[in-house]
Design brief:
The complex is a heterodimer. Chain A has helices spanning 3-30, 37-51, 61-84, 100-111, 121-124, 127-157, 166-192, 207-212, 226-235, 256-281, 283-304, 319-332, 347-359, 368-385, 401-427, 430-435, 441-455, 470-499, 514-539; strands spanning 201-205, 218-222, 393-394, 397-398. Chain A is mostly helical. Chain A has one domain. A two-stranded antiparallel ribbon of chain A has the order 1-2. Chain A has a two-stranded antiparallel ribbon with strand order 3-4. In chain A, a hairpin with a 2-residue loop joins strand 3 and strand 4. In chain A, helix 4 runs parallel beside helix 18 (470-499) and helix 10 (256-281) runs parallel beside helix 12 (319-332). Chain A is globular and about 85 Å long. The two termini of chain A are 30 Å apart. Chain B is α+β, with helices and mostly antiparallel strands. Chain B has 4 domains: 34-107 and 212-289 and 633-749, no CATH class; 116-201, Calcium-transporting ATPase, cytoplasmic transduction domain A; 290-319 and 521-632, HAD superfamily/HAD-like (Rossmann fold), CATH 3.40.50; 320-517, Calcium-transporting ATPase, cytoplasmic domain N. In chain B, the strands form 4 sheets. Chain B has a 7-stranded mixed sheet, with helices on both faces. A 6-stranded antiparallel sheet of chain B has the order 2-1-3-9-4-7, with no helix packed on it. In chain B, helix 4 (75-113) runs parallel beside helix 27 and helix 9 (271-290) runs parallel beside helix 27. The two termini of chain B are 66 Å apart. In chain B, 49% of the residues are buried. The chains are: A mainly alpha, B alpha+beta.
Chain lengths: 544, 751
């Protein structure tokens, strides 16, 4: 497929679809009528009854966060148990249980929407684990992120509108957004050629054995419930593949069409949220955020496709552009699925991937990307906003010292979570154990990438199962954990602060829309990111 | 007058230079004291970090052999780096000391003036010389030319020029007469005045200024706090970056020099804004003081920048506050002259500005009623809140005798109808006759007839003026009253934004006097500027809706609150605040006090009541209500300066990476040489020139931070674009040019 056509179809298609999804999300946020409202509401209230929650109860930011955190932690414990003891569970097919550190890493990785995989899914996970632990968590994690974004957006709607109820949001997001879309997508993927079965492998004779009539020369091909995992893997910007080679594997991503469709799935929710925001907060404001995200994403595409990647370690089916584009979409949306080995990508492409993970908002993972971009808006307004001679305001709400403090924490956290562990890994020799005694720019890049991917809750990495050591499992696990819940807590705290602010009826001193604001927002976003990470890009991918 | 002026200026310049000399040595001493790391740690985290960096580099400079891995340059380089680093910190403390000294210098010179002076207290008509500190509230003192006014007060008699240069910096002596306020410590340059003391000892303007500026623990404003957090956050991010960079480079096997890393850290940290932040805040208060406004805290100034609704009193703020007669409108039966004569008669004993202006207008048009001698001696009907009319009452055919004072007045008034000499020369009777002959018209004739009537039942004549409604009410007994005509004519007047007064003689309304309150000079332009910056103006007035609307339109006010009672002000302030607006308002009366206290920016007039001054967060010593516009401008300027330098500071950083990173690693990693886009001479010059640029930007911007950045009244969006281009784009581009230039300069000294 021609490159411009690929890109055009992708952008136009996702934005078109995102408009519909965004409208729907807006209705979910404000509890307006949705299509099939009666049926949906009945299903939902059934759930509430089963779980025993009071759907009308509003939560403050602390309560909302703790509900989210507790729910997630319950899932973590559950996943750790399933993975550690998968050999005792049905359909284990003789696969061993995970070591505790690997189970911890995997559980945290999936619940934080990271999906860093220090194991080979098709070889080490049983069908039960795939379906009960992995696929299930792949619904909870993005739903938690989206729920947080819902609460976040609600704080801006009007004073004391209420942040919502986490359990209600989680249920609604899973039942009426993720599940239906994932089911349809799974069916689409099955039609395209992705397998969906409880069988774990097929025994087949190789061509050679048929010719030689030598049945001993047969081959085992791993299959399983791939399509169901694949659809939510991308829709929820999870990224953890069924197979080690992730979306590079023909069963995960069989054709050019599936390649395009999967990119679609990764972008759809991240791009729908700004549109929902536009519906609720004013067209221009949402549009500004959407455009800023797209400019950032466009920059990533431009950088990653500026030089040819490969030809080694790339799927020839997708070629240099198809691979770079898919990976850029995946890194931009913090999904972490790749259709090619990172080692095969050009240094420029890697730089672009870093950029996506450093910013985390172009367009970023479901929920968190949107929120992070709004934090960029806040910081931009504060840095340049004083220049008009007024206390900076966001949507006619004053940005106070408390908000700045919380926003600064978020920005402080990200480099700290990436850089400090990188240095520790190098200092303790654990990085050298994988990348070789002599640390080259490439080895440095790989180490940096591992933690960047963890902190940004991305999940793609160079190491894969080779990092299945206690050090790497625990260290990346902790980084993923902190990289997810600390920002979420801070973001919800900001929401808690904004929901109590007085709104003015007057216009904002600086319009948070229009080309001028978008330009400045994008500039400040890139500047803040570049100032923090420039030296490391220089020492890493730039020097490869 | 001019001569004294020049003399004054001369003297002032001398004292100024003398003062600035002493300031300089003090400032420098103070700026060195502020280098104390404990002070910096508490007040300026950014500069504290720079100072720590200095100590690290200084240590390396003293012990260059301490490490092979992290110390790779020669000793001279470390010494140079250390010097530049400590200079950077010193520039910052210097700017702070300088701005504080500026504020203190004014206070010190003021304080010297406030030294005990002798005062001539007037006690039972005699002057008693006492010490100024013994003066009590309400005491009257006489001050002669060349003497110092002992304390703040109100002129109760006399006229003089007063030299206020020591307070206001304004070199031209200011004219003061009765009811004007004078400041303690200022000097009377001509004549003599009697002043009633209005301030208690230790509570004068001076004392307040001193208190404000000397208050070392100036509380930080919300924006300052937020900005400090942001700057501290950025500093911590850069410390993290540099710390991990050190090890990253080490593990990659690169030569890492500790001083270079410190240099990079200092270059990246927002030192410019970090260094200038305290100075900007202090300068805001000083600048307000220059405008003769005492701010009780920095908070009010900052709120002024945020102000988006100004509640303005019509009287005094938008208009001069004194209505003058401009026209006479007769009713159908009468002529303009009739109205003029009646109005003249009704106002002859009215000493208010309005009354005088009516007499003036009549005189100007030569509408002089007869029987002036009777009018000036007539019984005055004073204006009271209940009757709301004023005028005179007399019996025309009752003969009277004029005393000498009245005679003088009569002769004075007669000047309108006859020449000066004639008025002085002729006999009283002759004069009276001349006056009586002068005028014409129905009323004129009527009055003369009444005077001549020999009826024994002495007929009263009652001549009144007052608001139209009230006058109609007063005249209800008159059956010929054409209410419709009066009301219609009055409305026509109102429509033009003017105020009609009805005048009557014996309950017969003759016509209307049109009073006009002239707008303050340039008020239209001033308000247009205010609106351009996105501020809404609301005019509060007791006038009726029609008049208020017209004036509002003329003066360019957005909204009007007509027929308002004083208590409505507070109501409106609360209402607007409910909507989230930041309110600025001016007030002087005690009934303004609650509103002043509630408003975000309350500017009280010095001439106002103590309650108002207590409630407000700023006091204008000139008692000029339109100063609120200046306060708003200043507040905006303060925030803008802070924002501009922050943006500038952060925008600077991009260039610094390109200067220092290649200098650090190019030796070990040739690929990085391509980053040296500025083509700097050598790693050493690259680092030194970056640091030098970083340091000299601070003193270079001191004038800007003390003065504030240029404020142009225009749409916020335009201001934004303009400042973004100058400080954002300019801030990004400038270091590339400047670092290159410094590098070229340095490379001529170094091989």
């Amino acid at each position: 497929m021609d490159t411009t056509v690929q890109l055009g179809v992708l952008i136009v298609g996702t934005i078109g679809l995102a408009t519909i999804f965004g409208t729907y999300l807006a209705r979910m946020i404000t509890f307006e009528m949705r299509p099939l409202e009666k049926t949906l509401a009945r299903v939902e209230s059934g759930f509430y009854k089963v779980i025993g929650i009071n759907a009308t109860r509003q939560m403050g930011w602390k309560e909302y966060f703790f509900a989210l955190f507790l729910t997630n932690m319950v899932v973590v414990v559950f996943v750790i148990l399933v993975l550690t003891f998968q050999n005792y569970l049905p359909l284990s097919e003789g696969k061993d249980g995970f070591s505790f550190d690997l189970a911890f890493n995997t559980a945290v990785s999936f619940i934080t929407d990271t999906n860093l995989q220090h194991y080979a899914g098709d070889q080490q996970l049983s069908v039960t684990s795939h379906m009960v632990a992995i696929t299930f968590t792949m619904f909870i994690a993005p739903a938690s992120g989206i729920a947080a974004a819902f609460a976040f957006i609600r704080s801006f709607i009007r004073k004391n509108y209420g942040l919502g109820n986490f359990y209600v949001d989680l249920t609604r997001i899973i039942v009426t957004l993720l599940l239906p879309v994932a089911i349809v997508s799974a069916l689409v993927l099955m039609v395209i050629g992705v397998p969906q079965t409880l069988q774990t492998s097929v025994e087949t004779n190789t061509l050679e054995s048929i010719i030689n009539n030598n049945s001993s020369n047969s081959q085992t091909i791993n299959i399983g419930p791939v399509a169901s995992l694949e659809s939510i893997k991308l829709l929820g910007t999870n990224g953890g593949g069924f197979f080690v080679s992730n979306s590079g594997h023909p069963f995960e991503n069989p054709t050019g069409i599936s390649n395009m469709y999967e990119m679609f799935l990764m972008l759809i929710i991240p791009l729908s949220l700004p549109i929902a925001y536009a519906r609720l907060m004013g067209k221009g404001r949402g549009l500004a955020i959407l455009v800023a995200m797209l400019i950032g994403f466009g920059t990533m595409v431009a950088i990653s496709t500026s030089t040819l990647s490969g030809p080694l370690l790339l799927e020839t089916r997708f070629g240099s552009f198809g691979s770079a584009l898919f990976d850029t979409v995946s890194l931009g949306s913090n999904t972490g699925a790749v259709n090619s080995a990172l080692a095969g990508m050009s240094p420029e492409a890697i730089t672009s991937f870093f950029l996506g993970m450093f910013v985390q908002a172009i367009p970023g993972a479901v929920g968190t990307g949107m929120m992070t971009m709004i934090i960029f808006v806040l910081l931009t307004l504060f840095i340049v906003g004083l220049m008009v001679g007024k206390t900076p305001e966001f949507m006619s709400m004053k940005i106070g010292p408390k908000d700045i403090k919380l926003a600064v924490y978020i920005f402080l956290l990200h480099p700290a979570l990436i850089l400090v562990p990188t240095v520790i890994a190098l200092g303790t020799g654990n990085a050298q154990a994988i990348v070789g005694d002599q640390v080259t720019p490439m080895g440095y890049t790989q180490t940096l990438y591992e933690y960047t991917s963890s902190a940004a809750n991305n999940g793609s990495d160079y190491f894969g199962p080779s990092a299945d050591t206690p050090f790497w499992n625990y260290s990346t696990g902790i980084v993923m954990f902190l990289g997810r819940y600390l920002p979420l807590a801070l973001l919800l705290a900001i929401a808690g602060s904004f929901t109590m602010k007085d709104r003015k009826e007057v216009i904002e001193p600086i319009k948070t829309q229009g080309p001028l604001f978008i330009t400045i927002l994008v500039t400040v976003t890139f500047l803040l990111t570049a100032l923090t990470f420039f030296p490391f890009i220089i020492l890493g991918p730039f020097s490869i | 007058m001019n001569k004294t002026n020049n003399n004054n200026n001369h003297k002032k310049n001398n004292t100024l230079t003398a003062a600035s000399n002493s300031i300089n040595s003090k400032v420098i001493l103070d700026s060195f004291i502020k280098l104390d790391p404990r002070y910096l740690a508490k007040n300026n985290p950014v500069m504290f970090t720079v100072e720590l960096g200095f100590l690290v580099v200084l240590f390396v400079a003293m012990f260059p052999n301490i490490s092979d891995t992290f110390v790779s340059q020669n000793q001279i380089f470390y010494v140079e780096t250390a010097i530049i680093l400590i200079l950077t910190v010193w520039f910052a403390t210097f700017s702070e000391s300088l701005s504080e000294a500026q504020a203190k210098a004014r206070v010190d010179s003021l304080k010297r003036l406030e030294k005990e002076v002798t005062a001539r207290r007037i006690l039972h008509g005699k002057e008693v010389v006492i010490k100024s500190s013994q003066l009590k509230l309400g005491d009257e003192v006489k001050v002669y030319a060349g003497e110092t006014i002992p304390r703040d007060g109100l002129v109760i008699s006399g006229k003089t020029f007063i030299d206020e240069s020591m307070m206001t910096g304004e070199s031209n002596p200011v004219f003061k007469e009765k009811d004007d306020h004078v400041l303690g410590g200022t000097i009377v340059t001509s004549d003599s005045i009697v002043v009633e003391i209005t301030a208690e000892a230790g509570k004068s303007y001076l004392d307040e200024m001193v208190g404000l500026i000397q208050n070392a623990t100036r509380p930080k404003t919300q924006n300052e706090i937020a900005l400090t957090i942001l700057l501290a956050g950025l500093s911590i991010i850069f410390i993290t970056v540099i710390g991990t960079l050190l090890f990253s480079a080490y593990f990659l096997g690169y030569n890492t020099d500790i001083a270079t890393l410190v240099a990079l850290l200092v270059a990246l940290m927002p030192t410019t804004i970090g260094g200038l932040l305290p100075a900007i805040g202090v300068a805001g208060i000083t600048r307000l003081g220059k405008d003769n406004i005492v701010a009780k805290s920095g908070k009010g100034i900052e709120a002024a920048g945020d102000c988006d609704v100004l509640i303005l009193d019509k009287t005094g703020t938008i208009t001069e506050g004194s209505r003058s007669a401009v026209e006479f409108i007769p009713l159908q039966k009468y002529t303009e002259e009739d109205v003029g004569q009646v109005a003249y008669a009704a106002s002859i004993q009215d000493n208010t500005h309005e009354g005088k202006s009516i007499v003036d207008l009549s005189e100007e048009r030569k509408y002089i009623p007869p029987m002036l001698e009777k009018l000036i001696t007539a019984k005055s009907i004073e204006f009271t809140a209940e009757t709301r009319v004023s005028g005179i009452e007399f019996i025309p055919n009752k003969s009277i005798r004029l005393d000498s004072e009245a005679e003088e007045e009569l002769r004075n008034l007669a000047k309108t109808v006859t020449s000066q000499q004639e008025a002085d020369a002729s006999t009283l009777e002759g004069l009276e006759e001349t006056v009586d002959k002068f005028g014409h018209g129905k009323i004129h004739d009527l009055l003369l007839e009444m005077e001549k009537s020999s009826q024994s039942n002495q007929q009263q004549v009652r001549i009144l003026k007052g608001a139209v409604d009230v006058m109609i009410g007063e005249s209800m007994s008159n059956s010929t009253l054409n209410i419709a005509e009066i009301k219609w004519k009055a409305q026509e007047v109102s429509k033009k934004g003017e105020t009609p007064l009805a005048v009557s003689i014996n309950y017969e309304i003759v016509g209307l006097v049109v009073l006009k309150d002239s707008l303050k000079e340039n008020i239209r332009e001033k308000l247009a500027e205010v609106h351009a910056t996105g501020i809404n103006t609301i005019m509060i007035t007791g006038d009726n809706q029609v008049t208020a609307q017209v004036i509002a339109k003329e003066a360019n006010v957005n909204q009007v609150m007509a027929e308002a009672k004083p208590t409505d002000k507070l109501q409106r302030v609360l209402e607007e605040q409910q909507k989230g607006h930041i309110i600025g308002m001016v007030g002087d009366g005690t009934n303004d006090a609650p509103a002043l206290a509630k408003a975000d920016i309350g500017l009280a007039m010095n001439s106002g009541t103590a309650a108002a001054k207590e409630a407000a967060n700023m006091v204008d010593l000139d008692s000029d209500p339109s100063k609120i516009l200046k306060v708003v401008k200043l507040g905006k300027q303060l925030l803008m300066t802070r924002g501009a330098i922050t943006t500038f500071s952060i925008a600077n950083d991009a260039a610094k990476y390109f200067a220092i990173l290649p200098a650090m690693f190019a030796e070990d990693n040739p690929k990085l040489a391509s980053l040296n886009i500025m083509q700097l001479h050598s790693p050493e010059t690259a680092i030194l020139s970056t640091l030098i640029f970083n340091a000299i930007v601070i003193p270079a911007l001191i004038p800007l931070s003390l003065r504030g950045i240029k404020f142009k009244a225009q749409e916020l969006q335009k201001t934004f674009i303009r400042n973004m281009l100058i400080y954002g784009l300019g801030g990004a581009a400038l270091p590339f040019v400047a670092i290159k230039a410094i590098d070229m300069l340095l490379s001529t000294f170094m091989r």
